[in-house]
Amino acid sequence: MSNVNQRLELDKILEKIAMKAAFSLGKERVLKSEPSFSSLIVTRDLNRLRDAMALSTSYGALSFGGIKDVHASLQRASKMAVLTVEELVHIGQFLQGTHRLRNQYEKLETKYPSLDDLFFSIQDVPKLMALIDRSFSESFEVLDGASSELREVRRKISHMRNQIDRQTAEFLSKHKDMLSENVVTIHHGRQTFLMKPGDKNKLDGNVLGSSASGQSVYFEPAFLSRLQNDYSRLLHEEQEEIEKICRIVSASVGSEAEQLHANLETSALLDALFAKALWGVENEGLVANLTKDSLYLKNARHPLIDKDDVVENSYRLKPPHRMILISGPNTGGKSVTLKTIGLFVLLTMSGCPVLCDEAEIMMVDQVFVDIGDQQSIEKSLSSFSAHLDTISHVTQNATEKSLILLDELGSQTDPLEGEALSMALLDYFRSLNAWVVATTHFSKLKKYGTQYEDILNASVEFNMETLKPTYRYKENVLGESNALHIAKELGIKDSILEKAHAYKKESTYEEDHLLEILNKRIKETEDLQLALEEKETALEETTQKQKADYDALLKSVQSEKEDWIQKQEAIFEEKLMSLQEKIQTLDKTSTPTQRHALKQEVEKMKPEVIVDDIKVGDQVRLKQSSQVGIVEKIEKNTAYVSVGSLSMNVKLKNLIRLGSKPKRKKQIRTHRVDRSASVSLELNVIGKRVAEALPLVDKYIDDCILRNLPACRIVHGVGSGQLRSAIHDLLRKHKMVKSFELAAVNEGGAGATRVVFKS
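The chain above was modelled as a monomer; its predicted structure follows.
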């Protein structure tokens, strides 16, 4: 297959796509992309690519930052090897990168179902990620937080370093008359002083050597020797602890190696996928629709031709046509046409975009290519023999689902024999019912193409004025070589050209007959196309009328629904105003019985306007509750509802729509009050006797419930605890109290109780 990829230049396209990948494994996956001939795999890959391109268009490129090839390190860790600090830091960066990658996808507002299995297969390893994060820095340092032992030994090292610095400074100050230079010198890794040779025995210490001049000796005082030995021991302890930390973290990596390997493979797959998607978006490409028996490329552009120079052409190959026979002059674009069709099939089978405005590509089982000079030195084959070697392979392996691409069929040998062999081969491929695209110069092959309904004749255009090809592909047109006309323009003698024309006239009748047949077919094709366009226009008009009727009906139903909802809202508002008037008439001495009766009246007047299509901004009521709020956001089957200053998550099935978000209305009645603001969030009964406090608490709870407060706080003080116990007994028996508990320390502690009401 690699030979086919090279001849159609798929490998060059993959190199361009690979440049869009974020890390090395993604690039490798792109470069190793191979066409699949399984419809299930190709369909899956194209669906993924389609979603990846849509995602990239809407949100831009995803970040693969931090993700790198840690395959070798993971393998070593799985075999109980101790990884270096650098390796562990890279694994930590990889963990952070895959975590960010999945989070990016999860936060997208639009869903892409075909990508879910890839992104959700990336599993976080939070314990390992946290362990590496607290153990190592991005600059490959082992952090003090890696272990308490490391922190302690580094504290000792710091202390020892300070001690050495202090005492060396004191020595320099005290004995400067004995020193050749008043500095500390490093000799064989140890701090020493440059002392005059005559003074070396005056102090307790060791001479570690002499200077090259002999004017100084390297003197290490006894105190400094002891300090430096202790310092070296601490450094050794530090290194041992670092090795221990690396061993522990490496073991943790090894235990998670299988999952990390899976995350790495998925990341590489996603990187390659989004590289293909990004290349497609940047080059205005698209994902082809996979078909069983048709190919259609509208305004196709070869990816290797500069976009400013490329000529767009449309190609189609669908029943009854299963073969395209392309004729025309050399360098006119026949081979480019053949390569474009073949390349776009391979790109699609490889899960890559194609550069055109519309694309339908049939599922094939193989692609066979015979293009260019295939002379083989190794096999001692001529160009013609090499072509026949390829053709032999095709005839032995092709099926009705194969795509066969043949460039300049039979042109490397005697024209008569070449024509005969070419027609016999085409007969064979037609008997297989295979898909074939072939180019030719032979006149008899042009005639051959007009004799069968399953062959589409085509050509590439040539400008006779400029003597240059236009690279325009034209269906149902036979191409001319234009050799005699070009020869005249280039100065070939008229006498030679006259003889050439005489020889050509021998086949004039045959050519005229050929053109007659072809023109007849062109007329039939044009008539069919016109009839099809008329049917499409009529269908479009019918569809538009039906859509208009549907829209009008829908608008009418929506209008009636809104009118009904508004009426229900008005009734509810009127009842609510009446109830608020009653609330205001109740003085502070009203009995619990009266308040309970009023509460029951509220329950009876709850609106039951149920509408299925709850939307953001709608006013809703919670079922089994009097709480009313506004829908702020909807995710799947859950709504985020704002009730007063609170926000809660509620299943859609547990909501009753009251209408759209209420508009601000001018207050007509001065006695109307805000239900949520007409009662305090806190009741203070400190200093009151139990008999005084309980009626106040009971009334306060009822007020909170009437005004749909979700919670409140009762301040009772600590005291003897009798008042608190009595209030708790009341709360425990109240049917609308969901729970209660002593307040937090900053909210009163044992001197206050927080109450939560049933929704």
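The first helix runs from residue 2 to 7.
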